[in-house]
Write a structure and sequence with these properties.
transferase; 453 residues; alpha/beta; six-stranded mixed sheet; glycerate kinase, domain 1; Glycerate kinase; six-stranded parallel sheet; MOFRL_assoc_dom; glycerate kinase activity
Length: 453
């Protein structure tokens, strides 16, 4: 699960942190969760009677889409007629499929091969009729992987807009409000293309609060946002995007282009959705592993959001309070959280939200340890670890990082934060966590281990 575990710092607290992360990722395995959500007995699917349909196909996309599709094949066997899903690096996928074709896209910036794959996905949806049952597979990462520019826009327009949004510090729901209004598949448009087929959607959520309209930009659900909302996001964050995008949104605001279908639109009458996994799945499993190790766990929240470096400061402060006063729980303790933090990019470095969280925590721990006032005594043997459960944090090959008070000096850490260059500093300290692609994606998982002094 953690490929470079032998190279990471080792202490009882480090081992507990890594065990908790591994347990959380394992619990979010989409194959196991699909088996729990879907079964076939005597020709009957738990969500439908397959005998009522002339064809049963799988359509969708996301980082976990291939794993879910493979499990659906195993469950349904000959009852499944085919389909296709889009994921990243299908050649490196730990699973293989016989009936469902796995096509390639790219994340986080959309690509030409993603556009070609998405065109085929839309064609398959449009070919469905009233005798077709579509098993929709929608997982985190689908916004970038399922890429179909609106008619007036180019792939280059989408790439530039995505770059600007990801660097702006905008939240995922704000980013996706723009994506949906520049797309031919997002914001319920895949469901519209598939009419009049019945659709049963299985979702692996990587979105805080499980807003279905935000997961993969909601291709199978109604969109509560508008062209005006999308334009407001670009204005709010002063995003420099191509003129074609601004013109497209302005035409939508003027009513010259149809809005995305809204919740309650008749197009969704035949669509039902089941969330088979989310961030809470990983958080609860990590907390259970802490208990097994003899630590008292506290789940801070599975919905942490905001700037990664600021969230880290808060969680280190909680660790200090646990060590200093025994509140809210006494050490040895583990604080677990999930959610999705963001990074406002001002520098030219490399990193991701979880690496920036870890680096910011390392600065706080090191500064406290160096404080002669006694504040450092409250740090104790505290270890902070954070990963993206898909194994890919930002545009890097690392899942995240693991730190303590000795990982870096405060000055080095602060300079790296100013440049948004967490990867280089953590790498030089042998503090990057390498899992490789995990086959799941339920957002961030963070563990703060406060050992007994």
């Amino acid at each position: 699960m953690i490929r470079n575990r032998d190279q990471l710092p080792s202490s009882p607290a480090h081992e507990v942190a890594l065990d908790c992360l591994a347990a959380g990722i394992k619990a979010a395995d989409p194959a196991r969760l699909t088996r729990r959500a879907v079964s076939l007995a005597d020709g009957a699917l738990t969500v439908d009677d397959l005998a009522d349909y002339g064809a049963v196909i799988v359509l969708g996309g996301g980082k976990a889409a291939a794993v879910v599709a493979a499990e659906l094949e195993a469950i349904l066997g000959d009852a499944l007629d085919g389909g296709l899903v889009i994921t990243d690096s299908p050649d490196a996928s730990p699973v293989s499929t016989q009936r469902v074709e796995v096509l390639a896209g790219d994340h986080p910036i959309p690509s030409e091969r993603g556009v070609e794959s998405t065109r085929r996905l839309l064609e398959a949806a449009e070919a469905a009729d009233e005798s077709t049952l579509i098993l929709g597979v929608i997982t985190g990462g689908g916004s970038a992987l399922m890429t179909a520019p609106a008619e007036e826009l180019s792939l280059a327009d989408l790439q530039a807009t995505t770059d600007a949004l990801l660097a702006s510090g905008a939240t995922i729901d704000e980013i996706n409000a723009v994506r949906k209004h520049c797309s031919a598949i997002k914001g319920g448009r895949l469901a519209a293309a598939a009419q009049p087929a019945d659709i049963r959607s299985l979702v692996v959520s990587d979105v805080v609060g499980n807003d279905l309209a935000t997961v993969a930009s909601g291709p199978l659900v109604g969109d509560p946002t508008t062209y005006a909302d999308a334009r407001a996001v670009l204005d709010r964050y002063d995003c420099d995007v191509p003129a074609a995008v601004i013109d497209h949104l302005d035409r939508g605001i003027a009513g010259e282009i149809d809005e995305t279908p809204t919740p309650g639109d008749p197009v969704f009458t035949s669509v039902t959705t089941t969330i088979i996994s989310d961030g809470r799945t990983a958080v609860e499993a990590a907390a259970d592993r802490a208990t097994e190790a003899g630590f008292d766990p506290v789940v801070l929240s599975s919905q942490i959001r905001g700037e990664a470096r600021e969230a880290a400061k808060t969680q280190v402060a909680i660790a200090e309070e646990i060590q200093a006063s025994g509140r809210p729980i006494a050490p040895p303790a583990v604080v677990v959280s999930g959610g999705e933090t963001t990074v406002t990019v001002d520098g030219d470095g490399t990193g991701g939200p979880n690496q920036e969280f870890a680096l910011s925590a390392a600065v706080e721990l090191a500064a406290a340890a160096a404080d002669d006032s006694g504040v450092g005594d409250a740090v104790g043997d505290t270890v902070v670890a954070a990963v993206d459960t898909d194994g890919i944090d930002g545009p890097t090959d690392a899942a995240g990082g693991i730190v303590d008070s000795e990982t870096i000096t405060p000055g080095v850490g602060r300079r790296a934060l100013a440049e948004n260059d967490a990867t280089a500093v953590l790498d030089s300290a042998d503090a990057l966590i390498d899992t490789g692609p995990t086959g799941t994606n339920v957002n961030d998982l963070r563990v703060v281990v406060v050992d007994a002094s």
